[in-house]
Amino acid sequence: MRCEKCAIATRRAVGALGGTRAVDVSVSANTATVVTSDAASTVRAAIEGAGMRCRLIGSGGVDGEVFGGDLAAALGTDARTLRQSVAAVAEFKGEAYGHGDVVGVVRLVQVNAETILGEATLGGLAPGTEYEATIRTYGDTRRGIESAGEVYDVETATAEGGQRAGEIAVVVSDARGEITLPATILSDGLKTWDVIGRSVALRNTETNASVVAVLARSAGVGENHKKLCQCDGTVIWEADEDFLPVAAKPSRGTSGPLFERGMQTVRRGE
Question: Staple 234 to which of 30, 60, 100, 229, CB 3.0 to 4.6 Å?
């Protein structure tokens, strides 16, 4: 965003969405903070439809105070670590990452100590086909769903409702081979801080073919203001190559290659 006209267009686009409760746009910080029940992909599409480039840099519950010292102490950690563990994301990045044609994300957000929301935006699937999305016990994806283990569960979840905690959803892809799962309340036995480092599996229920991606920490609201990724020099606000492997991205600057003789190395600029 470059001026107040951009901010007005952004507010108008997001405000028109059915799930929007509040929008705060800052031209100086180049950010828009949205309180909504819509999927992140829906909000992003609205902003991009207004002519802006958009990247999700943080997500979380509205009331951050619920993740304070008392809950942290009960979990045996500190408040800072707890607040860094209330959002998680699994990214599917296509063939180069062992995900076949599948690209997209599955996102988890802990709203409070009892409630967790899950949402997904995925493409590259077989059209009109049923898929099962689950959290698996392990984060080992070397042999796909086999090494990722069984569906994640906790004793209380199965005992109370018969559904395993790691069962996210069973959904059918549309005619374009895409799935959009809006924010959905998941099992109360599921906590983001317990599943970070595990994995998400997407399984075709007809063919049993599956892909798996690791669940990683995702920044909370207001926790990520960086504009340059330290991993590969990508300018976050301008990149259109989020789902390309580093080796396939255009060279940036003169600091040298990131890959050399099969080993991943980073050269510092002289």
Answer: 229
